Fold this sequence. Notes:
The complex is a heterodimer. Chain A is mainly α. Chain A folds into 2 domains: 5-86, no CATH class; 92-297, MetI-like (MetI-like fold), CATH 1.10.3720.10. Chain A contains 14 helices and 2 strands, in the order ααββαααααααααααα. Chain A has helices at 5-32, 55-65, 92-123, 129-138, 144-157, 165-168, 176-188, 191-199, 204-215, 217-233, 236-241, 250-253, 266-286, 288-297, and strands at 70-71, 77-78. Chain A has a two-stranded antiparallel sheet with strand order 1-2. In chain A, a hairpin with a 5-residue loop joins strand 1 (70-71) and strand 2 (77-78). In chain A, helix 3 (92-123) packs across helix 7, helix 8 crosses helix 9 and helix 10 packs across helix 14 (288-297). Chain A is globular. Chain B is an alpha+beta fold. Chain B contains 19 helices and 15 strands. The N and C termini of chain B lie far apart (84 Å). In chain B, 47% of the residues are buried. The interface between A and B is large, with 52 and 59 residues.
Amino acid sequence: MMDSPLLRYVGLVVLVILCAVFVSPLLWMLSTSLKPQEEIKTSGFAALPDNPSRTLQYAYENYYAGRDKFVDDRGIERTGYEGVLTSDNVHFILYLRNTLIVAVFSVAGVVFASAICAYGFAKVAWPGRDPVFAVVLATMMIPFPAVMIPTYFIFKFLGWIGTLAPLWVPACFGTAFNIFLLRQFFMQIPGDLSEAARIDGLNHWGIFWRIVLPLSRPALAVVALFHTMYVWNDYIGPLIYLNHQDTFTLALGLQFYQAQHGGTPWNLLMAACTLITAPLLILFVMSQRTFIEGITTTGMKG
Amino acid sequence: MGEPLKLNTILRTAVGAGLILPALALIAFGPDTSREVPPDRVVVTYWEKWTDFEGTAMRRLCDVFNDTAGAELGIYVDYVLTTQIDLKSLVAACGGDPPDLNGLWTFNVSSYAAKGALQPLDERAAEAGITPEVILPVYYNQGVYHDQLYSVPLTPWSIALYYNKDIFAEFADELAAAGYSADRAPRTMDEFADYCRIVHRRNDKNDIELHGFVLGVPENIGWYWYAWGTWFGATWSDPETGLMKIDSAEQIRAYEWLQEFVRMFGQRDMIRLESSLANFNSPDNPFMTGRLAMMQQGPWFPNMIRQYAPEINYGAAPFPTHDGSEISYCGQDVLVIPSGARHPDEAWAFIDWLYNSPPINVPSGAAEPQFGYEYCIIETNEGPQQRPMPPLRPLEWLCWNHYKNSPYIEPADDFTRTHPNPVVEVHDQLARSPLAMTEPPIPNWMELRGEFEATYRDIWAGRAEAAPCLRAAQKRIDALTKLAADRMARYGEEYP
């Protein structure tokens, strides 16, 4: 059926339309970040500022330098503002650093710990393995608000409230979803490989480290990418556990552009959003092939 | 010999290195996160929900306190910006780790006080002269729950009708023909309906292009949907029992009026119009883009207009009421001291300073003079003139910078004379109205309001008639009320 040129053409058009629908918010975000504040108010979508030749200047102001207040051609005083990367109120670079710290430690921890747990569930036979795995899976059903207060108590007891530790240390014990994901992948690795390795004198750690992990690169990449996205966008954890702007992450810091009673500087908010979104997009594009390979081989697809 | 490197591989490696190396460098050598707190000071942790310009103003005020009275008293107020403060505060309170000072919304007070999460402030307030003789009663009383004071006003507000004078002028002849003047806002609900009928334009496709007023849904522009009954003389609670009541004759009349109003312009057309309007906080706010001639808003609105649509020629007036009386709806942001706060005395010292310090100037710390800090603009015969910012009491300085009215019964002359909000006097006048209304001190008010909201949505969308809908909702509210009352009774507490 799909060999028909007409159907392929129609399919292509549908895909382009769907793609445009998904991309349009990103384009609006980028476009808004390239405009001065007074041009945000517009009915309809304008990709570039009224004076396109000033696009770079506005981008420089919004992303970096900010601008002083000025009186425009109509005699109206326009407010000044600070650029995203140099603002004294919203410390973007500091938030980025905090987010990176959480992301690096958290991703490293979750990948390693989840892989070890998954190996135990997939390749090691021990009494009660399946019921324990069911319990691990069941933890996915518990909503965060249900454990919010108890975990807060624990972190308070440990003296971690107000630090980044609650955001990355728990990941070092693995997460149920990632353990499940990796277990499914590990189970597809032929048992003969493990047997051969065992005959060659490798113990479980050797098999895990030298055989299973190298073969599981796509699945590990999926776990890393999923968890990076989770950490990057996590709002509720930082909101509850962090108590000072010095430790805030990007997702939390972004809220500072939104005034309670209006006056949100949308051009700056969108510039900040663009900066926050860009690394994830690049990461996804770069790891796209591995990512899709991982998805398809872990049984995650439809 | 290995395979030659492909361009794709080189590119991916370069991009990867371009991401990873700066990231690692930032982690290793990024900005220092250590804070400098002066030694030998008691640190008062103050959580506040304000961000952007509102937060900056409060932070500067804390800086002034820390440099002056705080230095003398050995107190340092550590201002922490946070969002979703009600959730964060509740978790921290349950976890036994609350801040010393908390900036909440007024509707949080009864709920938190009923849970024992707030410290009573009666004695401290009386000693500091923060009393109903000094503070406007409508604001003072909002902090009272079960005859105890749990919060003090920080920045108050009242809701007014904002109207576009140029749009009214455009329809001056039609308004005059109906016996109205384009120079004033409608005063009664009948007048209001007439104004909306006149100030109305459709395009060639019969779509509404310009309209008088839309109440709308909460996430869009209908922020004060629950106050609609107020304009018809309704209250949210039974005056005798204090229990929530939304099926009173006045409430039913109010929402029936709203349904008739919507149907007058076509239910479907109004919903289409409303869903095509941007929300309040958008630069495409329909009042600012000229699609709505009137809007219900608070004193912060002129600041938004100043930023996004300074060319708009607008005015403000009391919101129309059923009989033309000056009913108003008021609220505020408040300060509370949570139970379990480590330094309640020091936290109170800051509140005392906010209320009782002699007038001060607050420097912006910027290289260039800043509006609201170093200078203000006042209207003179020669037009707007820049003048040095006058010293103000700290609390009034904050309200000034938030564009809000003063909570004091006697605001300072300089506060009113230099205020950046050209219609602040309207808001002040509304706060002084003997018919000023506030949300009732019901501990589970937000839960009950959620039930009310579902009903309102049905009424607004025309899915059900107002009267039976409100009566059915009242039954559900009664059930929820009983549950809450039983729960509190188990702990020997009285509801509401």
